[in-house]
Amino acid sequence: MPEIADPVALLGRLFDRVGPPYPERATLQAIFDSARALWPLESLDAAQRGEAAYVAGVAAAGLGDSAQCVRWVSRALTLKPDSRGYRVMLDNCRNGAP
């Protein structure tokens, strides 16, 4: 995997672009792939990794993949269990709503 020069800045850009409203499908796929690539980086703290997982989940929802949405937002919740926004998104994923 190529090195990501500034993962924190990239994470911020992904968060700003993911939606809703959702961007076009190719952009959503790129956001999903990028957020997944950020997830394992040791240079991110737990909150940032949680945000990367959340962004991946939101992108998956926009792509219509509720299983991946549940998977990634659940990961975000393990790192930030008190996040109301993450819980709402997880419920939406489970119910098939974006």
Description:
By secondary structure, the chain is mainly alpha-helical. Helices cover 68% and strands 0% of the residues. It is built from 5 helices and no strands. It has helices at residues 7-17, 25-38, 46-62, 66-79, 84-94. The protein is globular and about 35 Å long. The protein starts with 6 loop residues before the first helix and ends with a helix.
Total number of helical segments? 5
What general form does the structure show? globular
Please identify the structural class as seen in this structure: mainly alpha
Largest sheet: none
**Share of β-strand residues:** under 5%
Total DSSP E strands: 0
Which range best describes the helical content: under 10%, 10-25%, 25-40%, 40-55%, 55-70% or over 70%?
55-70%
Rg on CA atoms, Å: 12 Å
Short description:
The chain has helices at residues 7-17, 25-38, 46-62, 66-79, 84-94. With 98 residues, the protein is mainly alpha-helical.
List keywords for this structure.
mainly alpha, single chain, 98 residues
Question: How would the blueprint of this fold be written?
Answer:
Layout: H1 7-17, H2 25-38, H3 46-62, H4 66-79, H5 84-94
Helix pairs in contact: 1-2, 1-3, 2-3, 3-4, 4-5
